[in-house]
Amino acid sequence: MKTYTLITGASRGFGKALALEYAKKQTNLVLVALPNSGLLLLSNFLKDNFKIDVLAFEIDLSSKENCIQLYSEIKREGASVKYLINNAGMLSNGLFENMDEDYFLNQINVNVSTPTLLIKLFIDDFKANAPSGILNVSSMASFFHLPKKQVYGGTKAYLLSFSKSLRKELKPYNISVSIVCPGGMNTTTNLCLQNRTLSGISRSSILNPEEAAKITVDQFTKGKEVIIPGKMNKVFMFLNSILPTGIKNRLTSNAI
Ligand SMILES: NC(=O)c1ccc[n+]([C@@H]2O[C@H](COP(=O)([O-])OP(=O)(O)OC[C@H]3O[C@@H](n4cnc5c(N)ncnc54)[C@H](OP(=O)(O)O)[C@@H]3O)[C@@H](O)[C@H]2O)c1
């Protein structure tokens, strides 16, 4: 059976950059994004230019039924998943009291329930194709408790903790679990505009998704547990480990 790398949220941003990186490595791909996302165009481009097999599914992964449907359709195609990259995610930036509850309930589904369920659905594929692997896309927001990113940061902290535990459980099966925690990236138009307003070290920490994807794929291939793309982000992590809590709280509260 042919083996594939499954990437969710592959139509744009970081997911698209990861798909390109894997295509360059001549890896067969299963790509997923929401309907009418341009995913089919990307899929044809990758097939034509890299001579790899690409399966594309436009499906809303926010429900359990749709995740199960995706699994069934992949099996119907006779594909077996060796690597899973849980990248699809919903971002947010705003005061909790102003957030729409339907938005954050959906966000919790897409950022937490969906990656968890997809890993469960494909666990036999990972075992059959070992050495195999799972990469969960978290965020630097999982380490810093930022105002305006309460629900988002909480979902990403879940992924970090879940992945670290799962890594220990799946190691005996030769299934490697990694987590990537990117800092700011120029992905959506909104983020590109926001990032341009930054200055100093914050601005220099911003990466293009292509740069972050190259570092991520390289370190995931080496089996690294927690991947932090970018030198400045590593500096932030170092400062986080040495600064007293009171100072960190004052600095992060400024984000309000
Ligand atoms: N950008 C950053 O600064 C940053 C920083 C740290 C971590 N991250 C994480 O990196 C990941 C990618 O971020 P990004 O900035 O590249 O995001 P993005 O440009 O908004 O892309 C999100 C991707 O997820 C897909 N998606 C969203 N909801 C979905 C659903 N219900 N079902 C199926 N697919 C869905 C989108 O499909 P459509 O194109 O069809 O909408 C799109 O392909 C996320 O997990 C994010 O939390 C991003």
UniProtKB/TrEMBL annotation:
Gene3D superfamilies xrefs: NAD(P)-binding Rossmann-like Domain
Pfam families: adh_short
Enzyme Commission number, as recorded: 1.-.-.-
Gene Ontology MF annotations: oxidoreductase activity
Keyword Hydrolase attached: no
Highest taxon of source: Bacteria
Keywords, sorted A to Z: NADP, Oxidoreductase
Family membership noted in the UniProt record: Belongs to the short-chain dehydrogenases/reductases (SDR) family.
Protein name, as recorded: SDR family NAD(P)-dependent oxidoreductase
Organism of this sequence: Hwangdonia seohaensis
